[in-house]
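#structure-requests
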Amino acid sequence: MARPFAQPSFGLILANRAVVLGAVKVPDLVDLTVAAERSGFFDAVWAGDSLLAKPRLESVTLLSALAGVTTRLRLGVGCMATFVHRHPVMLAHQWASLDVLSGGRTWLAVCLGGPSEANAAQAAEHQVMSVASAERVGRLEEGITVLRKLFGGKNVSHRGPFYAFEGVTLEPRPVQQPCPIWIASNPTGLTWRGGASASDAVVERSFRRVARHADGWMTNKLSPDEFRRQWSRIAAMAREEGRDPAKLGSALYHNININEDRRKALEESKAFLDTYYTSKFTPEFVEQWTVAGGPQQCVEELRAYFDAGVGHMALRLTSWDQQGQFKRFLTEVAPAFAPAR
């Protein structure tokens, strides 16, 4: 089970949307994954998830293919924005099968996805799946409950607001027992226009949801100090819920661009992210979401996050030169975090 790491842990975020955009090909994603495993440095590869709002290779299908070319890397979805659209019995079967195929290497980070008011594509995604935007929280929490029952039990019954069934036994069951389910959320980070994104009440409920339901928390767009404060709040809530916060994992879904000219690194990152998300992010938003600059500056920024308590850094290379940035990271940044021999 993915838990807090004894030393800095890194994951590589795959640009599975870039296949739809025509910027990379499927073999590029496979080759990058194989190279990440051969490096011995990365602990995981991550795929994003969306249906219509941000089209891409379907996450579980992609990770199933990658299970066949890896033996060690964890295979993560962060975040599974379509979790609220997927019937949890079917998803439990798919995810358990992936866990078996990979020998127990799955890492599921679920999330609410975007609200209907975010944009027309997001609204269409909810509409076509017959899910009201206001149902997302309820479906997420109930979906996690259903998955946990099916992953660990036999002749399972459930009756809730959205799902009901009797005497269901899932086969195969996941190799991992329990099979980890994390929640990805960021209720306090910057919005792409630059403002705060949630009320105090929404923030409180979001953190409480992690403390009550999740094996770990994945977040993004936070400074090290912001992460430290928020992680402390979640830990306190976990204790209130009767859980040991030391058993909760933490991860940051972040970007990196290595370039001695920090301004150019951020400009390239903005151009990449604007295209990748079909959006127009503010420079402030991109800067808060990206480690950028020369190798030493990147090392220092990454260390600040680990010092703040981040357990795992999932990094996306915000450049269409994925191989070039990958090589620079492994040769010029990664050595600073290699374990002493």
